[in-house]
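Help!! Second protein's tokens look totally different from the first
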Amino acid sequence: MKRKPKPFLIAAAVLLVTNIITLFLWLKPDASPGVGGISAGSEVVATVGGDSVTREDWLYTLEQKYGEQELRQLVNQKVIDKAAKKYNVSISDKEVDQEFDLIRSAYDSFDEEFTADEQTVKAQIRTDLLLEELLTKDVEISEEDMKNFYTQNEEMYSIPKMFNLKQIKVKDKSEAGQVIKELESGSSFDVLAMERSTDDGSANLGGDIGYVPAEGELLSPEAVKELESTKKGKWSQPVKTGSDYVIYLLKDTVKERQYSYKDVKDQIRRQLAMEQVETPLTPEAFWDEAEVEWFYGTEQ
């Protein structure tokens, strides 16, 4: 199994931050009325029998649970950006795209982290690569060591052919035919997935199952054959899978690719260099240098 590259291990936190920001914006005083006529911006945001939940209670709870994490995320981003400018460290768009592709190929299709918006994930990848570059900027790795590592781990830098898919799984051929009719009449694939699909994991995501390798256990040869003839943005004909039938929506196809040593040389250098760095892989390593002062005091 491929190693899941380290930079992406932090990316899920970005989703939580995004959700918190969205919620706080929704809670602004000028927010529109919510469910049941209760205004999200008013003093009372919910009632339970005769008891009220105030906006202040809600915001205080959110701040206690997520406030430090959210503020730390914002501070760390500024710290890394400031350090990168100071030491003239940069990460190219090509490196970010390449890391994204390699991570995407290593993650299972149902890993929740990869249901995130692509640009959000790439922004986190850029931050993580900048941090690695900063922490390893003074570490020297020989060309011979890097080439040997590539030769011994060449399979890590290969991307299999993959399909970016949504699915609707139903119990029988008749129901599958009904789903096709509703799609042809203009029904939303996402809505039908949520309403009809028997696969709870993907149904809640509008049928999204992410990037699935063409060769693997998740797609049968029949499904691959059907997807090969399906146009991007279109749905497939029902494919029998075990006792069920599946209709796929093909969002995109990723071609098979092998990255050369030259393509991944910088990534290998960082990886080998990180093994020699005693400083923990955290932005907090640069807090003193950046003279950070924050609401939660001096503790890091």
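Here's the second one for comparison:
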Amino acid sequence: MQRVLVVGVTGAGKSTLARVLGERLGLVYLEMDALYFAGPGWAVNERLVEDVAGLADGPRWVVDSLGYPQVRDLLWERADTVVWLDYPRRVVMPRVLRRSLRRTVTREELFGGNRETWRDWLSREHPAWWAWAQFPARRREIERRLRDPRFAPLHTVRLGRPRDAAAWLASL
């Protein structure tokens, strides 16, 4: 495990697991949202493809994302392992709601200096709405990629419950 993608739906805990995995294995942790959002107003990084390509050329990394569409294939082609947090909605939704509530109340600074606001909760782009709406499509996309012959060489770890993830991490 040298180049690892931690994938799953919004709120599954990809960033947390990727960060811990990076520490355990001495891998560089790459936070995809921090690379994607470049500034205030949720501005998108115009150099995303170049930035991610340069980082993905590195020998040892872990990324906390399926990958934005512009860089998805690039990451999947360079990875050697995919860790899939395949948790049910009943696990994911309380997590994403608690996280967004905490971020909104504390005004936690996020990617590019942005913050979640109470007004954001009304948008379809809000993580809570996004997690709910994209849940089936995201799972299908991951399943499709794992069946794709291009990605057959990838070692896959599919974890269906948080306790499975904790046990797997403990075993490393």
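Reply: Different proteins will give different token patterns, so don't panic. The chain has a mean pLDDT of 95.
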